[in-house]
Amino acid sequence: MPKLFTGLNLGPLEFRHRVMMDLPFRAGPNAAADLRRLSRTLVGSVVIHDLGPSIEGIGQVGAARTALAGPSLKPAHGHRQRSIARIRVDLSDPRAGIRWKHSATWVRDRGYDGVELDVSQAKAAVAADTLEELLGDIPDVPDRTRLGLRLSGRRSAEVSLPEALALARDYEVAYVHLTELPSWTTGWPSCRRAAEIRKAFPGVIVAAGCNRVAAAVHLVEDRWADAVSFSLGDPRAPDLLSEFNRRLKAPGPPRNDPL
Predict the structure, then answer these.
(1) Residue 97 CB contacts under 8 Å (≥ 6 apart), including other chains
(2) Are 175 and 204 in contact (CB under 8 A)?
(3) CA-CA distance, 85 to 189, in Å (whole number)?
(4) DSSP readout, 75-108?
(5) Three-state SS string across 163-203, please?
(6) What is the DSSP string of 23-82?
(7) What are the tens digits of pLDDT across the range 152-202?
(8) End-to-end CA distance of the chain
């Protein structure tokens, strides 16, 4: 069985396999039912709930988030599914630290299993020390064993990837979630840039945007990525889910290899 479909231990979190589902935030009358259905889609998976910008706890969007969290998390846990809340923080905002603390507390109080700090869409160039302040001042829950960091892999990204990876390593975040890297090909793990990223952050790397099962298997088998994610908003998501489930149910000896 490919390593992609074996277990992964991430600090206090244990996953049945290494496929994460990325769920864009949606509000509406059918949103809660959609989330409950998703909890049965890929058993033992991780669903990353993209909650958008840092949470203020007020207003219509804040109320929609609160309404969705309760009815979606309980059935997800019943199906051995972990739920991680993604919070997007604008590092150019002078109140970024306060907003991040407020958001992390909201995530804790709603019962999410972890939180992902998203700085992949920074609006302006910022100094690395702004990110360091956020990573160095984590609220009591979740602590760093439940903290992920989402970064853009574009060479023109506002947040310097080498600097951000060094901070993620130094502050021992649970995982780094990389987006906007070149299309995954069989040659990526052996190219120079891939090797530089892997060397800069030897911890758990999640490769975003893997919308082909073969590419996902290859990245993990080559030990460049430890897990992959794909968006449930991708038109190909139904076919991906079907293929992932088929592979997960295929007979084979159990494996739970170390990272």
Answers:
(1) 133, 134, 137
(2) yes
(3) 28
(4) HHHHTT-EEEEEEE--TTSTTHHHHHHHHHHHHH
(5) HHHHHHHHCCCCEEEEECCCCCCCCHHHCHHHHHHHHHCCC
(6) E----STTHHHHHHHHTTTSTT-EEEEEEEEPP-S-HHHHHHHHHHHHHHHHHHHHTT-E
(7) 887 666 677 888 899 999 999 999 999 987 666 667 777 888 888 989 999
(8) 16
